[in-house]
Amino acid sequence: MSKIELVRQEMIKAMKAGDAPRKEALSMLLAALKKKAIDKRADLTEEEENAVVFKEIKEAQEALDSAPASRTDIIEENRLKISIYSEFVPKLMSEDEVRAEIKKVLMQLGIEKPSPKDKGNIMKAVMPVLKGKADGKMVNRLVDELTRG
Question: Is the pLDDT reported for residue 149 higher than 70?
Answer without folding.
Answer: no
